[in-house]
Write a sequence for this structure.
């Protein structure tokens, strides 16, 4: 694998600002800054001259240079150059925000601009551990910024607190292992000196998984896997690749693409989330219909635990050797150890990709269509169904000038008003599609799906709309920061359920959100919307988006949490799962017992007790 | 002791004002009214569909499909045959609501109502709430049931106020009246067989039909929680079958919520007054027939006073179920497979049913005559042959008025009119039941008769009047029942030192004994006791300290009244126990005629004080209570009753302990 020399494949990761390059004890690290991240799907090239310190936001989503703002004319604009939408004016956004949330540009709630280091508690250091760590030569830092950066994921309450400059318990130390053996050393030292380890991958958790337990009295060490980001080998005979677990999704895809391969694993967070994180949370990718979810993609896992290293002795595609130990690892959420290396399936890059979209007269018809597609097992790489509110939201995000964004709605409006009257603009909904494979098969497949859609009143609505739908997935996360500048807070959460309950859960959860907001004193009607994002033989995955204007509330985050809690109760009462792929973390722990039964809890607990009797991996997720 | 925490003061209950809907009918054209533009607010999630489509939806539902397959396997017939059978059931059952029939009724009923009634008063705010509820969620209308009029009246009101017309669950007996049955069907009634115990297919068709209409918001579903018309004007123990069905879509997550709207319909004079009394005395109920209905024409010449209809606060099934029902229990079985409701669900539905019936009771408008009926019946039982002086009657009625108001009764007593006038106008409306001579009032027990009659016939004639009168008194029993149980418990307790625990035990015994007779929510003994104590303390009847209960100086009158409220029932249950003790073998069928004979004998010999114990309702309730308590056992299959005489004897003694 000469093409994959260390120098080429090593990436600096996203955390360059935190990277302790200047520190004297870190003489060995001489990595070139990475020029930028260019995923295949939607992001345009980033120029080389962006200062490293500003690559990532410390108190919001994504890249520092990319954000929504209202310019001097009061028009919404998306800054930066990374995305298709970057540098564009979005004329409809302001009105949508004002009418949906009763938000007002006069009422601003700006974030604290810089981190105030004095707000960060001084680190509790375990000197003996530190001393031995130094002797290993593994880089580390107890700089306040580095610690704060790794103290959170992207739950609303986490970001809200950061914006207000409030810092809770943060890790006392950050270490950057460079390879599997480094991790082994760190874990050994942590066991020896009774230090708490919290593995950190991409930091995109939305389950409070990265929060330091406030009751933890030991020194907490954040184990940042970002330097373990190499593809160690590619096996073209078996179509597998052996990869270090710290690699970030978009880098993995880009590097594989260079050799003509892909994993096809594309979770919405793939710009930032890491392979190890996917394994630890049982991640799911947008194109799982072709490539599978993480559990289908993984062939072999190596994990370092306080008991030693766990791995299988061969790479057979399936084994009957008792319960699959991979399933103790996948979804363990950093409670058992650190995933260091993973062998994954790879596929040749698809010859042809085609986006598509279908408009349905209402959500019910849309769901019926998706169900039929699943029944016939002919789902495209991705098929997603947005409800009416999201359809309108998508409309609001249409940029001013762009040939590619030409008139989803304009065109659409035209044809339903002229030719296909009877589509109620307040009821219709849209499905976005992505087909992949060789050209001929794609076209055939496309026809099959559109034929099914037609049976449910669906009308093909063009490639652009589909493509735009997927692009929006990546910029939507940025919108929350804009909302938070104007008293609007919100988040998304997901679940999975059998087919016969999809409509019931969508309806009831959305209604429950509206009802709870009203009961909890929210002054303005909330945005409560959903979409079906994955289809399976026996059910589907549904995402809910929920946001409201919190003016007039004294503790908006608490209200938000109460409403989300109620929504989750509603999901569970209606037969939905606790999580499809976000995981449990600490946010949803309280429902674990009812979700998997007491015996199930006992099984997991006993594994934890065996593998990590001293709770070295003490993030207290899951159990 | 603090009671405030447990419940609110009934005095503070806020109720809406009434409007007379007949007023406009008297001032404008009925025809124009019947042909008016009717555009009700509909359920926001409604997908409009036709009656025939509705039937198709039922026949094609997964639920019914499952049962059809099951039945066809069990009976060894093709599923097509079973489907045909299901279609026939549905045909027999289904409503065919059409606006033209409703308009016809609107016209006719306007004429009839104007002749019969002085006014029909509605709380319009309740209708506004109902409209809102219909817009937001599927709605179930739950009117009280005292008359055949009830459901026509309901639809009439909803039509008048431009609200969505309901579909109404009606008993099959109406189907006997050919023309009328079909007319009712076209005004929204659907017909259910009275009993279909083990018939899976019937149950499946029926429950699916109701659920589909409800879930889709096709129309509000209306039925009577009490199952049948109450002949005594006391609320009947709620039937759970239909309530179970209409709550199911919420429990299984098929709708976000369902609004249950209790409606209280009170008649100043019931059309069926004497009919009910005769029925309770054993004159069998005439089978409903169209010609029979026309014979009722003489009714048209009488004055039936006013009707009050109160649309209660919609009750959300979701809030009823909150922290009460674990809905995830339905997660593991496909929802179209019929399952027997769990204990948890059954008890939830049962408690909800009681709450709803109580909500009906609370908003029942009581007329002054109801209070007069108390006084007149008590006087009659005390054998004051020469009747009561009008002044005294008025004084007692006013006293009772104040008391009942303190207990939270929804009393419509015109305060701007002198009490004596209120009393005399009430008496004149009910002149068939009272006799006034020389300024003294008594029940009209001596009716004119043709030819010689036996003492037994004479007794039954008297009983008709007494039971008619009791049916008015009964309208207010729910107001007094808890204090009355407490008063009786105090009465039985040892004379001087009234220990609270002893009184509570006695209260609990009585409450348990009478829980088939009155609406007493199962499991709420402590709460009922506290409520009763609260009311009696608040009104200065009792003083209660840590251990003891003291009767105040002015409390004696109230206690005496309250004890006498329960007395006829105590005596009735006692005599049923006595009767059973003297039996050797008895079937359930023989019970009513035999106990009636027994009671008549004792009444004629003067050993019983209350003629009203002749009411078969009381006798049936007593038997049900005794079965529940285990003093009588039904032997399955034979219909015979196995009697535990030791227990019956002891119950009789306890009831008689005074």
């Amino acid at each position: 694998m000469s093409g994959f020399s260390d120098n080429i494949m090593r990436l600096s990761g996203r955390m360059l600002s935190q990277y302790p390059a200047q520190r004297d004890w870190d003489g060995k690290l001489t990595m070139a800054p990475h020029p930028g991240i260019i995923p295949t799907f939607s992001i345009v090239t980033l120029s080389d001259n962006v200062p490293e310190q500003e690559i990532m936001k410390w108190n919001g989503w994504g890249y520092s240079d990319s954000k929504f703002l209202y310019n001097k004319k009061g028009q919404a604009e998306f800054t930066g150059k990374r995305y298709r939408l970057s540098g564009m004016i979005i004329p409809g956004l302001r009105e949508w925000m004002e009418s949906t949330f009763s938000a007002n540009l006069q009422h601003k709630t700006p974030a604290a601009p810089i981190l105030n280091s004095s707000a960060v508690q001084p680190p509790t250091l375990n000197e003996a551990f530190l001393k031995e760590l130094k002797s290993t030569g593994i880089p580390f830092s107890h700089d306040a910024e580095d610690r704060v950066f790794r103290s959170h994921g992207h739950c609303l309450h986490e970001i809200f607190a950061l914006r207000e400059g409030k810092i809770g318990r943060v890790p006392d130390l950050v270490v950057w292992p460079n390879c599997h053996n480094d991790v082994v050393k760190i874990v050994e030292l942590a066991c020896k000196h009774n230090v708490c380890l919290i593995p950190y991958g991409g930091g995109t958790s939305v389950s409070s998984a990265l929060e330091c337990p406030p009751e933890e009295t030991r020194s907490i060490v954040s184990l940042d896997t970002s330097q373990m980001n190499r593809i160690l080998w590619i096996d073209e005979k078996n179509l597998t690749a052996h990869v270090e677990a710290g690699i970030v999704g978009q880098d993995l895809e880009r590097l594989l693409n260079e050799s003509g391969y892909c994993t096809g694993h594309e979770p919405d967070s793939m710009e930032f989330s890491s392979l190890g994180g996917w394994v630890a949370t049982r991640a799911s990718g947008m194109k799982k219909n072709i490539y599978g979810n993480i559990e289908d993609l993984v062939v072999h896992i190596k994990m370092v635990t306080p008991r030693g290293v766990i791995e299988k002795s061969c790479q057979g595609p399936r084994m009957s050797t008792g319960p699959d130990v991979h399933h103790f690892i996948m979804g363990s959420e950093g409670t058992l150890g650190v995933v260091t290396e993973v062998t994954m399936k790879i596929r040749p890059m698809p010859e042809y990709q085609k986006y598509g979209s279908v408009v349905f007269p209402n959500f019910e018809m849309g769901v019926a269509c998706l169900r039929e597609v699943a029944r016939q097992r002919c789902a495209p790489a991705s098929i997603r169904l947005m409800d009416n509110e999201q359809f309108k939201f998508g409309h609001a995000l249409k940029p001013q000038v762009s040939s590619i964004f030409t008139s989803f709605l304009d065109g659409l409006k035209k044809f339903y008003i002229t030719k296909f009257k009877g589509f109620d603009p307040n009821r219709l909904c849209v499905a976005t599609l992505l087909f992949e494979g060789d050209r001929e098969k794609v076209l055939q497949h496309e026809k099959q799906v559109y034929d099914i859609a037609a049976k449910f009143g669906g009308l093909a609505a063009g490639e652009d709309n589909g493509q735009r739908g997927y692009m929006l997935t990546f910029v939507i996360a940025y919108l929350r920061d804009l909302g938070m500048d104007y008293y609007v807070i919100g988040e998304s959460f997901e679940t999975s359920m059998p087919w016969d309950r999809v409509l019931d859960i969508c309806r009831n959860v959305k209604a429950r959100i509206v009802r709870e907001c009203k009961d909890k004193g929210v002054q303005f009607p909330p945005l409560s919307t959903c979409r079906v994002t994955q289809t399976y033989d026996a059910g589907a995955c549904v995402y809910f988006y929920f946001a409201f204007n919190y003016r007039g509330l004294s503790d908006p985050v608490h209200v938000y949490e109460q409403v989300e809690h109620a929504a989750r109760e509603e999901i569970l009462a209606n037969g939905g799962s606790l999580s499809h792929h976000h995981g449990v973390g600490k946010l949803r722990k309280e429902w674990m017992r009812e979700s998997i039964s007491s015996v199930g809890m006992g099984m997991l607990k006993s594994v934890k007790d065996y593998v990590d009797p001293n709770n070295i991996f003490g993030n207290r997720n899951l159990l | 002791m603090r009671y405030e925490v447990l419940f609110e003061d009934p005095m503070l209950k806020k109720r809406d004002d009434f409007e007379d809907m007949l007023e406009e009918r008297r001032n404008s054209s009925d025809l124009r009214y019947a042909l008016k533009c009717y555009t009700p607010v509909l359920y926001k999630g409604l997908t409009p569909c036709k009656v025939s489509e509705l039937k198709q939806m039922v026949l094609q539902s997964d639920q019914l499909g499952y049962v059809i397959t099951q039945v066809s396997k069990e009976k060894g017939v093709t599923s097509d045959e079973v489907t045909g059978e299901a279609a026939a059931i549905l045909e027999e059952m289904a409503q065919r609501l059409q606006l033209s029939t409703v308009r016809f009724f609107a016209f006719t009923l306007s004429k009839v109502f104007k002749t019969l009634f002085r006014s029909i008063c509605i709380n319009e705010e309740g209708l506004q709430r109902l409209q809102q509820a219909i817009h937001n969620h599927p709605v179930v209308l739950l009117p009280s049931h005292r008359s055949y009029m009830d459901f026509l009246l309901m639809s009439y009101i909803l039509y008048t106020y431009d609200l969505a017309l309901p579909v109404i669950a009606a008993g099959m007996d109406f189907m006997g009246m050919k023309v009328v049955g079909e007319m009712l069907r076209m005004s929204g009634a659907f017909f259910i067989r009275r009993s279909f115990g083990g018939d899976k297919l019937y149950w499946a068709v029926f429950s699916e039909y109701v659920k589909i209409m409800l879930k889709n918001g096709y129309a509000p579903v209306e039925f009577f929680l009490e199952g049948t018309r109450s002949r005594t004007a006391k609320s009947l123990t709620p039937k759970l079958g239909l309530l179970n069905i209409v709550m199911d879509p919420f429990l299984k997550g098929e709708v976000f919520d369902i609004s249950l709207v209790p409606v209280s319909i009170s008649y100043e004079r019931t059309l069926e007054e004497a009919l009910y009394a005769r029925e309770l005395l054993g004159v069998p109920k005439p089978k409903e027939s169209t010609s029979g209905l026309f014979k009722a024409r003489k009714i048209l010449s009488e004055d039936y006073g006013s009707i009050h209809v109160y649309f209660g606060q919609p009750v959300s099934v979701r809030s009823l179920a909150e922290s009460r029902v674990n809905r995830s229990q339905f997660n593991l079985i496909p929802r179209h497979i019929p399952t027997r409701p769990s204990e948890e669900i059954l008890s939830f539905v049962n408690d909800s049913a009681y709450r709803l019936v109580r909500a009906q009771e609370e908003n029942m408008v009581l007329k002054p005559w109801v209070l007069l009926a108390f006084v007149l019946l008590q006087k009659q039982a005390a054998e004051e042959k020469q009747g009561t002086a009008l002044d005294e009657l008025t004084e007692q009625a006013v006293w009772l008025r104040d008391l009942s108001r303190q207990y939270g009764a929804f009393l419509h007593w015109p305060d701007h009119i002198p009490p004596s006038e209120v009393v005399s106008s009430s008496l004149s409306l009910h002149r068939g039941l009272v006799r006034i001579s020389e300024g003294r009032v008594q029940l009209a027990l001596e009716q004119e008769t043709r030819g010689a009659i036996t003492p037994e016939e004479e007794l039954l004639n008297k009983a008709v009047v007494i039971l008619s009168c009791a049916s008015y008194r009964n309208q207010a029993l729910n107001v007094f029942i808890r204090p009355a149980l407490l008063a009786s418990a105090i009465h039985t307790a040892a004379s001087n030192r009234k220990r609270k625990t002893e009184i509570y035990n006695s209260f609990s015994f009585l409450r348990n004994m009478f829980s088939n007779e009155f609406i007493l929510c199962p499991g709420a003994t402590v709460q009922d006791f506290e409520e009763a104590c609260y009311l009696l303390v608040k009104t200065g009847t009792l003083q209660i300290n840590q251990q003891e209960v003291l009767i105040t100086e002015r409390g004696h009158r109230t206690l005496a009244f309250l004890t006498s409220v329960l007395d006829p029932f105590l005596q009735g249950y006692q005599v049923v126990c006595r009767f059973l003790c003297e039996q050797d073998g008895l079937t359930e069928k023989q019970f009513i005629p035999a106990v009636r004979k027994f009671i008549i004998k004792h009444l004629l010999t003067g050993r019983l004080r209350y003629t009203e114990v002749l009411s078969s309702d009381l006798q049936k309730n007593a038997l049900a209570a005794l079965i529940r308590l285990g003093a009588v056992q039904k032997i399955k299959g034979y219909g015979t009753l196995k009697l535990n005489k030791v227990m019956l004897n002891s119950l009789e003694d306890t009831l008689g302990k005074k």
